[in-house]
Design brief:
Layout (H helix, E strand, L loop, with lengths): L11 H6 L9 H29 L6 H5 L2 H22 L15 H25 L3 E6 L6 H37 L2 H14 L9 H21 L3 H17 L13 E5 L3 H4 L11 H16 L5 H4 L6
Helix pairs in contact: 2-4, 4-6, 5-9, 5-11, 6-7, 6-8, 6-9, 7-8, 8-9, 8-11
Length: 315
């Protein structure tokens, strides 16, 4: 239940920082404070982990750090903890209200979200292969032991799981929903997706095309939240998108080369294929996202219409 409205602030200074209808900071300040809190917790957690590893005589770097479950947990813990604190203390809302309601759709939403990208990337692969833009170089098991392959897939999936949860809690959770509540749903999706895209500009091979492609991907992921008002579907989509893109089909994942069951060399026009950044930087991703959005709509069409299942967030 929302707290009772507070009287209008008595001073101009108070109006700058405090909401006029609730005893909490304005949306912009809440987003800034959440970012600061995330950075502080991330720094402290990271420092503690590194000190502990040094004391134990183990300090993974480079690819070893990327594949370390302990290192992968640092940003996940930081974002979850910062968001929980900000949600309770700044937003005056529950953490669960971001979209962590458990119901009969929860596991199905996760499963559908994880598996849908498999279809989308299979189609992307088929198109690029049919156009002669992909050189197939073989399968991982031709040169790597099966036990090693299984371990690599498990490590990759744990990494994608961590990334999927933390980025969806941040972008489709805290950013989108606070902005939608303050402005409207359309601006909330646009601004949160723009922030999501800008968070990837330091990735290898990032460009204007990749930024616009990830902006479009942000809309695709946000559509999963719009249709369900829970984060389970977007989290599943995010996990499945990265996992099937990189670990199964062998495409670069936002500029990063990970282990892949298929070994591919993309030689087609970068404007269409995305080149070394991956399909998100190419025009090929747009029809895949459109098809994915249609399938999400079809999957959720039997649920209560969104106009009846939400309140001021969609106004």
């Amino acid at each position: 239940m929302k707290p009772d409205p507070m009287p209008p602030p008595r001073s101009s200074l108070a109006r700058i920082f405090i909401s006029s209808d609730e005893p909490r900071p304005r949306t912009g300040w809440r987003l800034v404070l959440h970012a600061v809190l995330t950075f502080i917790i991330l720094s402290i957690t990271g420092a503690l982990v590194i000190l502990a590893l040094i004391a134990l005589g183990s300090t993974p770097t480079g690819e070893d750090a990327l594949s370390s479950p302990l290192f992968n947990m640092i940003p996940l813990v930081a974002i979850l903890l910062a968001t929980w604190i900000a949600r309770r203390r700044l937003d005056r809302r529950s953490f669960r209200s971001l979209g962590f309601n458990f119901d009969r759709h929860t596991l199905i939403d996760l499963g559908f979200g994880i598996l849908l990208p498999a279809l989308l990337f299979a189609l992307i692969l088929a198109v690029e292969w049919g156009m002669g833009w992909i050189e197939f170089q073989g399968w991982a098991w031709e040169t790597i032991a099966r036990g090693t392959i299984l371990r690599a897939l498990l490590i990759d999936f744990s990494f994608m799981l961590s990334v999927g949860i933390q980025e969806e809690v941040l972008s489709r959770g805290y950013h989108l929903q606070n902005l939608a509540e303050a402005l409207n749903l359309h601006w909330g999706i646009f601004i949160s997706s723009a922030i999501f895209a800008l968070l990837h500009i330091s990735n290898p091979h990032a460009s204007l095309a990749s930024t616009l492609g990830i902006l479009a991907s942000g809309y695709f992921l946000a559509f999963g939240w719009v249709r369900t008002r829970n984060l389970w579907l977007p989290i599943g989509l995010h996990i499945g998108w990265n996992f099937f893109q990189g670990s199964i089909f062998g495409f670069p994942v936002s500029g990063l080369r990970l282990f892949g069951l298929m070994r591919l060399e993309v030689n087609g026009p970068e404007l269409i294929t995305g080149g070394d950044f991956g399909p998100e930087a190419g025009l090929v991703v747009l029809p895949a996202l459109a098809l994915g959005a249609f399938l999400i709509w079809a999957y959720t069409r039997s649920r209560l219409p969104q106009s009846e299942s939400t309140d001021a967030v969609s106004s």
